[in-house]
Design a protein that fits this description.
Distance between the termini: 57 Å
Number of domains: 2
Strand order of the largest sheet: 1-3-2-4-5
CATH architecture of the largest domain: 3-Layer(aba) Sandwich
Oligomer: single chain
Strand content: 5-15%
Shape: elongated
Order of helices and strands: HHHHEHEHEHEEH
Helix content: 40-55%
Radius of gyration: 31 Å
Number of helices: 8
Largest sheet: 5 strands, mixed
Structural class: alpha/beta
Number of strands: 5
CATH class of the largest domain: Alpha Beta
CATH topology of the largest domain: Glutaredoxin
Length: 203
């Protein structure tokens, strides 16, 4: 048995015929346990929220707790910054400049020109509502077509206007290219990715 601690095996190990025997001592076990305990202690605060950190105030070093509080607040602010929107909002003509033109300097905006009487518009509103929840860094808005562009023909509906960098970047007139009422959410999602309105990394 190459694992036996015999004189012959010692000779074979000395000449490299057998690998050196690895011996785990009691000290090794102790050192491993100490290292594990140290790591657990270092990361004990990682998953606590702000209220739980406050409860530990008497037990932990104040400076360490303040560092974790600052880190957690920074993480929360970053999450809020990334989740600016999250729903398909209905805007009217007086809101357009503020909610779309000016706001597009700060973020991408997808505007749906619609009429409730047109089935394809209802379908597109459903798809955009879902996408708005998935891509919260992009603003999704809908406006009655004739409020946005007076005398805009129903034959051009639904229409998507994509704004970014303070100006219109793309537009999609009707859903014919996607099959009209057979248009899937994935079709609209791919189109918006292609024109840069939504970032795949947001999802």
């Amino acid at each position: 048995d190459p694992n036996e601690d015999t004189e012959w095996n010692d000779i074979l190990r000395k000449h490299g015929i057998l690998p050196q025997q690895i011996k785990i001592t009691q000290n090794d076990i102790y050192d491993s346990a100490v290292e594990k305990a140290r790591e657990e202690h270092e990361h004990r605060l990682d998953n606590l929220d702000l209220d739980e950190l406050d409860e530990l105030e008497d037990d932990e070093d104040e400076e360490i707790l303040n560092q974790y509080r600052a880190q957690r607040l920074a993480e929360m602010k970053a999450e809020l910054a990334n989740d600016k929107f999250g729903e398909l909002i209905h805007i009217s003509e007086p809101d357009y400049k503020r909610e779309v033109t000016l706001a597009s300097r700060e973020s991408w905006i997808v505007v749906h020109l619609f009429r409730d009487s047109i089935p394809e518009c209802k379908l597109l509103n459903r798809h955009l509502s879902v996408l708005a929840k998935q891509y919260k860094q992009t603003k999704f808005a809908k406006i009655v077509s004739v409020e946005c562009i007076h005398n805009y023909p129903d034959a051009n509906l639904p229409t998507i206007l994509v704004y970014g960098k303070g100006d219109m970047q793309a537009q999609l007139v009707r859903l014919d290219k996607f099959g009209g009422m057979r248009t899937r959410k994935k079709d609209i999602e791919t189109y918006l990715k292609d024109v840069g309105a939504i970032d795949p990394a947001q999802k």
